[in-house]
Design goal:
Distance between the termini: 18 Å
Number of strands: 4
Pfam families: BMC
Structural class: alpha+beta
CATH architecture: 2-Layer Sandwich
Largest sheet: 4 strands, antiparallel
Domain Bacterial microcompartment: 35-100
CATH topology: Alpha-Beta Plaits
Order of helices and strands: EHHEHEEH
Strand order of the largest sheet: 1-2-4-3
Subcellular location: Bacterial microcompartment
Keywords: Bacterial microcompartment
CATH class: Alpha Beta
Protein name: BMC domain-containing protein
CATH superfamily: BMC (bacterial microcompartment) domain
Helix content: 40-55%
Strand content: 25-35%
Number of helices: 4
């Protein structure tokens, strides 16, 4: 698993993001303040688990990015205000230990 947080993303990052998400996510980004992006590269089962953790731990939008390879690895974007993204990413890191 790889984790990155981007604070104060520039416009070009939103352009990149818009090409890799569904239309309802693009609309959400237009309507909500996004001062940070958290990125998590993980397996598909982990993606679902981490998206659930992020959404329950903070007021963020957690979404899978399209177009990542290989098929067994994908990327989760966690979008929102800086403090919310940091809280969600901390919850993901804490939950990334052994499942049982």
């Amino acid at each position: 698993m790889q984790i990155r947080i981007i604070n104060a993303p520039q416009e070009n990052l939103f352009d990149m993001l818009s090409r890799r998400v569904a239309p309802h996510v693009r609309k959400w980004v237009e309507e909500h303040p996004v001062s940070a992006m958290g990125l998590v590269q993980a397996s598909v089962p982990d993606l679902f688990y981490f998206a659930d953790i992020a959404s329950k731990s903070a007021n963020v939008m957690a979404v899978e990015l399209f177009g990542t390879c290989p098929q067994t690895t994908t990327t989760l974007a966690v979008l929102g205000e800086t403090s919310a993204v940091r809280a969600a990413m901390a919850a993901i890191e804490e939950a990334s230990g052994p499942a049982f």
